[in-house]
Amino acid sequence: xxxxxxxxxxxxxxxxxxxxxxxxxxxxxxxxxxxxxxxxxxxxxxxxxxxxxxxxxxxxxxxxxxxxxxxxxxxxxxxxxxxxxxxxxxxxxxxxxxxxxxxxxxxxxxxxxxxxxxxxxxxxxxxxxxxxxxxxxxxxxxxxxxxxxxxxxxxxxxxxxxxxxxxxxxxxxxxxxxxxxxxxxxxxxxxxxxxxxxxxxxxxxxxxxxxxxxxxxxxxxxxxxxxxxxxxxxxxxxxxxxxxxxxxxxxxxxxxxxxxxxxxxxxxxxxxxxxxxxxxxxxxxxxxxxxxxxxxxxxxxxxxxxxxxxx
Length: 311
Description:
- The protein is an alpha/beta fold and 311 residues long.
- Helices cover 36% and strands 22% of the residues.
- The longest helix has 21 residues, at 78-98.
- The protein is globular and about 55 Å long.
- The model has no long low-confidence stretch (mean pLDDT 92).
Protein backbone atom coordinates (compact mmCIF):
# COMPACT_ATOMS: atom_id res chain seq x y z
CA UNK A 1 0.00 0.00 0.00
CA UNK A 2 1.19 3.50 -0.85
CA UNK A 3 0.81 6.01 2.02
CA UNK A 4 1.38 9.76 2.03
CA UNK A 5 2.75 11.34 5.22
CA UNK A 6 2.68 15.10 5.68
CA UNK A 7 5.20 16.57 8.10
CA UNK A 8 7.46 13.66 7.18
CA UNK A 9 10.60 15.51 8.26
CA UNK A 10 9.30 16.38 11.73
CA UNK A 11 9.50 14.65 15.08
CA UNK A 12 6.44 12.40 14.80
CA UNK A 13 6.48 12.22 11.00
CA UNK A 14 10.01 10.83 10.87
CA UNK A 15 9.18 8.06 13.34
CA UNK A 16 6.02 7.26 11.40
CA UNK A 17 7.83 7.03 8.04
CA UNK A 18 10.36 4.63 9.56
CA UNK A 19 7.67 2.42 11.07
CA UNK A 20 5.63 2.36 7.87
CA UNK A 21 8.67 1.45 5.80
CA UNK A 22 9.63 -1.32 8.24
CA UNK A 23 6.10 -2.73 7.94
CA UNK A 24 6.19 -2.96 4.16
CA UNK A 25 4.41 0.24 3.15
CA UNK A 26 5.51 2.45 0.27
CA UNK A 27 5.79 5.96 1.71
CA UNK A 28 5.55 9.36 0.05
CA UNK A 29 6.69 12.07 2.45
CA UNK A 30 6.01 15.78 2.08
CA UNK A 31 7.12 18.65 4.28
CA UNK A 32 7.70 22.39 4.03
CA UNK A 33 11.29 21.82 5.13
CA UNK A 34 13.93 19.30 4.00
CA UNK A 35 13.36 15.65 4.90
CA UNK A 36 16.72 14.28 5.96
CA UNK A 37 15.96 10.56 6.15
CA UNK A 38 15.45 7.91 3.49
CA UNK A 39 12.31 6.20 4.81
CA UNK A 40 10.16 7.85 2.14
CA UNK A 41 10.16 9.34 -1.32
CA UNK A 42 10.57 12.92 -0.15
CA UNK A 43 9.23 16.17 -1.58
CA UNK A 44 9.11 19.74 -0.31
CA UNK A 45 6.17 22.08 -0.78
CA UNK A 46 5.21 25.63 0.07
CA UNK A 47 1.45 25.15 0.30
CA UNK A 48 -0.79 22.08 0.28
CA UNK A 49 -2.61 23.36 -2.80
CA UNK A 50 0.72 23.34 -4.64
CA UNK A 51 1.66 19.74 -3.85
CA UNK A 52 2.44 18.10 -7.16
CA UNK A 53 -0.52 16.17 -8.50
CA UNK A 54 1.61 13.19 -9.52
CA UNK A 55 2.63 12.67 -5.89
CA UNK A 56 -0.90 11.44 -5.16
CA UNK A 57 -0.75 8.78 -7.87
CA UNK A 58 -1.37 5.38 -6.30
CA UNK A 59 -1.76 6.80 -2.77
CA UNK A 60 -4.48 5.01 -0.79
CA UNK A 61 -4.13 6.71 2.61
CA UNK A 62 -2.99 10.17 3.70
CA UNK A 63 -1.57 10.56 7.21
CA UNK A 64 -1.70 14.27 8.01
CA UNK A 65 0.94 14.83 10.69
CA UNK A 66 2.19 18.25 9.57
CA UNK A 67 0.85 21.24 11.51
CA UNK A 68 1.74 24.46 13.26
CA UNK A 69 1.62 23.26 16.81
CA UNK A 70 2.56 25.58 19.69
CA UNK A 71 -0.17 26.81 22.01
CA UNK A 72 1.40 30.15 23.05
CA UNK A 73 2.19 31.47 19.55
CA UNK A 74 -1.29 30.47 18.39
CA UNK A 75 -2.70 33.11 20.75
CA UNK A 76 -0.46 35.89 19.45
CA UNK A 77 -0.68 34.88 15.77
CA UNK A 78 -3.93 32.92 15.28
CA UNK A 79 -4.05 33.66 11.54
CA UNK A 80 -1.00 31.48 10.95
CA UNK A 81 -2.61 28.56 12.77
CA UNK A 82 -5.99 28.79 11.09
CA UNK A 83 -4.38 29.22 7.68
CA UNK A 84 -2.07 26.22 8.02
CA UNK A 85 -4.06 23.86 10.22
CA UNK A 86 -7.54 24.52 8.83
CA UNK A 87 -7.31 26.12 5.37
CA UNK A 88 -4.20 24.11 4.52
CA UNK A 89 -5.83 20.86 5.57
CA UNK A 90 -8.93 21.64 3.51
CA UNK A 91 -6.65 22.19 0.50
CA UNK A 92 -5.11 18.79 1.17
CA UNK A 93 -8.57 17.21 1.36
CA UNK A 94 -9.44 18.82 -1.99
CA UNK A 95 -6.40 17.15 -3.54
CA UNK A 96 -7.54 13.85 -2.06
CA UNK A 97 -10.99 14.29 -3.58
CA UNK A 98 -9.48 15.02 -6.99
CA UNK A 99 -7.51 11.77 -6.78
CA UNK A 100 -10.33 9.73 -5.22
CA UNK A 101 -8.40 9.03 -2.00
CA UNK A 102 -10.91 8.05 0.67
CA UNK A 103 -8.81 7.26 3.76
CA UNK A 104 -7.33 9.89 6.07
CA UNK A 105 -5.51 9.76 9.43
CA UNK A 106 -5.42 13.13 11.18
CA UNK A 107 -3.02 14.16 13.94
CA UNK A 108 -5.33 15.92 16.36
CA UNK A 109 -4.44 16.97 19.90
CA UNK A 110 -5.40 16.82 23.55
CA UNK A 111 -5.64 20.61 23.18
CA UNK A 112 -9.18 19.93 21.92
CA UNK A 113 -10.17 19.35 25.56
CA UNK A 114 -9.22 22.84 26.71
CA UNK A 115 -9.80 22.88 30.48
CA UNK A 116 -11.94 19.76 30.96
CA UNK A 117 -14.34 19.39 33.86
CA UNK A 118 -13.02 15.91 34.65
CA UNK A 119 -9.47 14.74 35.39
CA UNK A 120 -9.75 11.97 32.82
CA UNK A 121 -10.43 13.06 29.24
CA UNK A 122 -12.82 10.80 27.33
CA UNK A 123 -13.52 11.31 23.63
CA UNK A 124 -17.27 11.66 24.19
CA UNK A 125 -17.14 14.01 27.19
CA UNK A 126 -18.01 17.70 26.89
CA UNK A 127 -14.99 19.81 26.02
CA UNK A 128 -14.04 23.11 24.47
CA UNK A 129 -10.59 24.29 23.35
CA UNK A 130 -9.17 27.39 25.02
CA UNK A 131 -6.65 28.55 22.40
CA UNK A 132 -6.48 28.87 18.58
CA UNK A 133 -4.24 25.82 18.22
CA UNK A 134 -6.79 23.64 20.01
CA UNK A 135 -9.62 25.17 18.01
CA UNK A 136 -7.80 24.54 14.72
CA UNK A 137 -7.64 20.84 15.57
CA UNK A 138 -11.22 20.66 16.83
CA UNK A 139 -12.50 22.49 13.74
CA UNK A 140 -10.85 19.89 11.53
CA UNK A 141 -12.45 17.06 13.51
CA UNK A 142 -15.85 18.65 12.87
CA UNK A 143 -15.04 19.16 9.18
CA UNK A 144 -13.95 15.53 8.86
CA UNK A 145 -17.28 14.42 10.31
CA UNK A 146 -19.09 16.48 7.66
CA UNK A 147 -16.82 15.09 4.92
CA UNK A 148 -17.64 11.55 6.04
CA UNK A 149 -21.36 12.20 5.52
CA UNK A 150 -21.05 14.22 2.31
CA UNK A 151 -18.12 12.59 0.51
CA UNK A 152 -17.77 9.16 2.13
CA UNK A 153 -14.31 10.08 3.47
CA UNK A 154 -13.10 7.58 6.04
CA UNK A 155 -11.08 9.30 8.73
CA UNK A 156 -9.51 8.66 12.11
CA UNK A 157 -8.48 11.62 14.29
CA UNK A 158 -5.91 10.78 16.95
CA UNK A 159 -5.77 13.12 19.92
CA UNK A 160 -2.12 13.01 20.95
CA UNK A 161 -1.35 13.80 24.56
CA UNK A 162 2.21 14.80 25.56
CA UNK A 163 4.41 13.07 22.99
CA UNK A 164 7.93 12.48 24.28
CA UNK A 165 10.94 10.19 24.04
CA UNK A 166 13.07 9.33 21.04
CA UNK A 167 13.76 6.54 18.59
CA UNK A 168 15.38 3.72 20.64
CA UNK A 169 17.81 3.20 17.76
CA UNK A 170 18.94 6.81 18.03
CA UNK A 171 17.92 8.05 14.57
CA UNK A 172 15.22 10.57 15.52
CA UNK A 173 14.30 12.73 18.48
CA UNK A 174 12.93 16.13 19.42
CA UNK A 175 14.56 19.35 18.38
CA UNK A 176 15.99 21.57 21.14
CA UNK A 177 13.66 23.76 23.24
CA UNK A 178 10.68 21.41 23.26
CA UNK A 179 7.90 22.64 25.52
CA UNK A 180 7.02 19.80 27.92
CA UNK A 181 8.64 19.09 31.28
CA UNK A 182 10.67 16.02 30.25
CA UNK A 183 12.51 17.85 27.50
CA UNK A 184 12.94 21.04 29.53
CA UNK A 185 14.24 19.29 32.65
CA UNK A 186 16.75 17.20 30.68
CA UNK A 187 17.95 20.13 28.56
CA UNK A 188 18.38 22.51 31.50
CA UNK A 189 20.14 19.93 33.64
CA UNK A 190 22.51 19.00 30.82
CA UNK A 191 23.28 22.71 30.49
CA UNK A 192 24.09 22.98 34.21
CA UNK A 193 20.99 25.05 35.02
CA UNK A 194 18.32 24.58 37.66
CA UNK A 195 14.77 23.58 36.81
CA UNK A 196 11.56 25.03 38.24
CA UNK A 197 8.35 23.14 38.92
CA UNK A 198 5.24 25.30 39.11
CA UNK A 199 3.26 24.36 42.19
CA UNK A 200 3.63 21.69 44.88
CA UNK A 201 0.25 21.82 46.65
CA UNK A 202 -2.04 20.30 44.04
CA UNK A 203 -4.61 17.67 45.02
CA UNK A 204 -2.39 14.76 43.95
CA UNK A 205 -0.46 12.13 45.94
CA UNK A 206 2.79 14.14 45.92
CA UNK A 207 1.36 17.64 45.44
CA UNK A 208 2.58 18.17 41.86
CA UNK A 209 0.62 18.14 38.62
CA UNK A 210 -0.17 14.82 36.96
CA UNK A 211 -0.05 14.67 33.16
CA UNK A 212 -0.19 12.02 30.45
CA UNK A 213 2.97 11.26 28.44
CA UNK A 214 3.20 8.88 25.51
CA UNK A 215 6.30 7.68 23.66
CA UNK A 216 6.61 8.89 20.07
CA UNK A 217 7.10 5.32 18.87
CA UNK A 218 3.78 4.32 20.47
CA UNK A 219 2.15 7.27 18.70
CA UNK A 220 3.54 6.10 15.35
CA UNK A 221 2.15 2.63 16.05
CA UNK A 222 -1.24 4.18 16.77
CA UNK A 223 -1.19 5.75 13.30
CA UNK A 224 -0.17 2.40 11.79
CA UNK A 225 -3.08 0.66 13.53
CA UNK A 226 -5.41 3.42 12.29
CA UNK A 227 -4.39 2.77 8.69
CA UNK A 228 -5.30 -0.88 9.20
CA UNK A 229 -8.63 0.01 10.83
CA UNK A 230 -9.59 2.27 7.91
CA UNK A 231 -9.74 -0.86 5.74
CA UNK A 232 -12.81 -2.06 7.63
CA UNK A 233 -14.43 1.01 9.18
CA UNK A 234 -16.30 4.04 7.82
CA UNK A 235 -17.24 7.48 9.06
CA UNK A 236 -15.13 9.83 11.16
CA UNK A 237 -13.66 8.29 14.31
CA UNK A 238 -11.75 9.94 17.19
CA UNK A 239 -9.35 8.22 19.59
CA UNK A 240 -7.14 9.38 22.45
CA UNK A 241 -3.51 8.29 22.36
CA UNK A 242 -2.09 8.64 25.85
CA UNK A 243 0.28 6.80 28.11
CA UNK A 244 -2.30 4.63 29.92
CA UNK A 245 -1.64 6.43 33.21
CA UNK A 246 -0.55 9.86 34.34
CA UNK A 247 2.80 10.78 35.83
CA UNK A 248 3.35 13.54 38.37
CA UNK A 249 6.04 16.14 37.88
CA UNK A 250 8.00 14.69 40.79
CA UNK A 251 7.79 11.19 39.29
CA UNK A 252 9.35 12.61 36.14
CA UNK A 253 12.18 14.27 38.07
CA UNK A 254 12.75 11.06 40.02
CA UNK A 255 12.94 9.04 36.80
CA UNK A 256 15.47 11.46 35.28
CA UNK A 257 17.62 11.17 38.39
CA UNK A 258 17.30 7.38 38.39
CA UNK A 259 17.68 6.27 34.76
CA UNK A 260 20.16 8.89 33.54
CA UNK A 261 23.44 10.23 34.97
CA UNK A 262 21.74 13.58 35.52
CA UNK A 263 20.72 15.07 38.85
CA UNK A 264 18.08 17.75 38.49
CA UNK A 265 18.65 20.91 40.55
CA UNK A 266 14.99 21.30 41.46
CA UNK A 267 13.30 24.58 42.43
CA UNK A 268 9.64 25.36 43.02
CA UNK A 269 7.61 28.26 41.73
CA UNK A 270 4.02 29.42 42.12
CA UNK A 271 1.37 27.37 40.31
CA UNK A 272 0.31 28.73 36.94
CA UNK A 273 -3.25 30.10 36.74
CA UNK A 274 -5.71 27.58 35.35
CA UNK A 275 -3.43 24.55 35.67
CA UNK A 276 -5.61 21.53 36.57
CA UNK A 277 -4.12 19.11 39.08
CA UNK A 278 -4.60 16.05 36.86
CA UNK A 279 -5.08 15.67 33.12
CA UNK A 280 -4.87 12.21 31.60
CA UNK A 281 -6.37 10.32 28.68
CA UNK A 282 -9.09 7.71 28.75
CA UNK A 283 -7.76 5.20 26.21
CA UNK A 284 -10.30 2.36 26.36
CA UNK A 285 -11.56 3.07 22.85
CA UNK A 286 -8.04 2.96 21.41
CA UNK A 287 -7.21 -0.14 23.46
CA UNK A 288 -10.21 -2.06 22.14
CA UNK A 289 -11.02 -0.70 18.69
CA UNK A 290 -7.51 0.24 17.55
CA UNK A 291 -5.93 -2.73 19.34
CA UNK A 292 -3.44 -0.19 20.70
CA UNK A 293 -1.70 0.01 24.05
CA UNK A 294 1.51 1.89 24.81
CA UNK A 295 4.61 -0.29 25.12
CA UNK A 296 6.88 2.35 26.67
CA UNK A 297 6.66 3.47 30.30
CA UNK A 298 8.03 6.67 31.83
CA UNK A 299 11.53 5.27 32.38
CA UNK A 300 11.70 4.22 28.73
CA UNK A 301 10.50 7.63 27.54
CA UNK A 302 13.13 9.42 29.62
CA UNK A 303 15.94 6.98 28.87
CA UNK A 304 15.47 7.29 25.08
CA UNK A 305 15.08 11.07 25.33
CA UNK A 306 18.31 11.40 27.30
CA UNK A 307 20.23 9.22 24.85
CA UNK A 308 19.01 11.42 22.02
CA UNK A 309 19.90 14.70 23.70
CA UNK A 310 23.26 13.30 24.79
CA UNK A 311 23.93 12.32 21.19
